[in-house]
């Protein structure tokens, strides 16, 4: 019985792999919508689901949210976005093994931070460095917040826990905008420019802290679906940098817009004139020397009129 309940919960979970629902009512049954949650600790263990990560230093315990045995996963047919161990994968990158969803067991289930992102590293040094960078950058809504770091000797892996950015990374966010049938091209353009404004603000916030990010990539910018917040993360290669190095990095951001956003926008029939202007300023092609000194700052200050001719007031 217990196992059946857990399996049903598991199936529900696989059908709707989205963020936790809090207090929402199912229009069909009138009851609360099944939460984005597998069951109690007892349900989990009776279904053969394991995976409690405890950080000895902070005393915080995190349960990897889905860890059915491989046997159960195979019976359910492994859905996309789950790994062989049944962990829901939020994403994967170049430095980490993967990023999966974890539950902070210390907090009540409906708490905003009950579900967190867990980044798995093979080496402790990299995990510790990345966590130290988060701490050095400090608390700022423009930076993804790191919560904890743990080394689990039995796994020979390290884990960094972060707030989960529910809107996913910049690539996923823009792809969704570009493919949205209900939006007109001019509406898509506004949403694209909003996202780009967010990315510029994030990098500017890092530069203002005296850092360069070191790994400019559309997948290192994150969106929060509820608050429309944009934040930058993945600080594994971030370090202190002088203004010249920061200007080089602004150019890299321009290259990234040109390479990763422009072609997608054109394919979606979105007008890219404003985007081209932003890229031009970041590339340093504006004649005014003030633009060359602080391209991102000038762009943000003159956002309402991003035509290059009007940039300097
Ligand atoms: N806090 C998070 N919330 C939601 N998704 C995330 C989060 N952190 C990472 N991801 C997803 O995982 C991917 C890889 O994470 P990242 O920290 O960039 O690792 P890597 O160092 O391997 O590039 C991201 O591009 C994103 O898709
Ligand atoms: Mg990354």
TrEMBL record:
SUPFAM superfamilies: Protein kinase-like (PK-like) (SSF56112). Residues 84-313 form the Protein kinase domain. Signal peptide: none annotated. SMART domains: S_TKc. It holds the Pfam family Pkinase. This is Protein kinase domain-containing protein. It comes from Pseudomonas asuensis.
